[in-house]
Predict the 3D structure of the following.
Amino acid sequence: MGKCSKDKRDLYYRKAKEQGWRARSAFKLLQLDSEFHLFEGVSRVVDLCAAPGSWSQVLSRSLPEGSATIVSVDLQPIAPLPGVITLQADITHPATLTSILKLFGGEPADIVCSDGAPDVTGLHDLDEYIQGQLLLSALTLATNLLRPGGKFVAKIFRGRDVDLLYSQLSLLFDKVTCAKPRSSRASSLESFIVCEGYRPRRGWLPESLTLAKTKLPLDLESTAAGSMDRERAIAPFIACGDLSDFDADATYQIEKGVGSISLEPVQKPTAPPYKTALEKKRNGTLR
Ligand SMILES: C[S@@+](CC[C@H](N)C(=O)[O-])C[C@H]1O[C@@H](n2cnc3c(N)ncnc32)[C@H](O)[C@@H]1O
């Protein structure tokens, strides 16, 4: 498939390049914000799994200059962005929490967002498990970093046990919503949980999330048992983005003339997996 045909097949991909976003994911966060007003009064924000950096771009363009500290974390190096502190780190590693806290001078965050996705192996069960672990790590960081009343936004894949996830999140946040931005393909299970009003119950310890065979603190045991007895939670499901926005599953004609020009990516990958192979090819050492 040529570059131009992808531009037509996926208009968000094309528009991202036209508007200078590093990835089409920028539109997902913009559409989530238009529904939930995520950035009001935000002065400290963490963008987890942030490379190549389009969510961080949205944050730095949406928050008034100099009003907020934005920390963006990814396994991959993130090319510098104005107004954004980038951190190359693994969100599943405990030391990452300390590094972020240091950057905030020990102050809590107003919002933690995560667009994390592992490299897929094609083995469905393994991929689902790794995605779950990534979400758990993002949530662990969020519960350690957020101020009371703070927000957590994360990518999820709506699988079989998603209602259990909603029940668990409802123990920590006042309001949990599942949202599907228009720029996220309807054919994909991808959606986003938007958790508002961080309010851990009495006795809650953030470490509880990561302890193997978690023994919940006493106060919580009865709450958790009670919530399992009740019907499993169903989070409201909201489509966001204006109806006049582009449909992520449709194919569009691009304006005549302009459409035939293929646009270069806004930010080329900093450490692509094929980098070594390319270097070897150049040196003639590729076998
Ligand atoms: C879909 S991309 C994020 C796109 C980003 N939100 C944007 O708008 O540019 C998913 C990212 O998750 C990162 N990731 C996966 N596992 C990670 C981990 N354990 N720690 C940090 N980042 C991770 C990947 O390196 C990848 O850059």
Remarks:
- The beta strands are 44-48, 69-74, 84-88, 109-114, 146-157, 173-181, 190-198, 237-240.
- The domain at 3-283 is CATH 3.40.50.150 (Rossmann fold).
- The chain has one domain: 3-283.
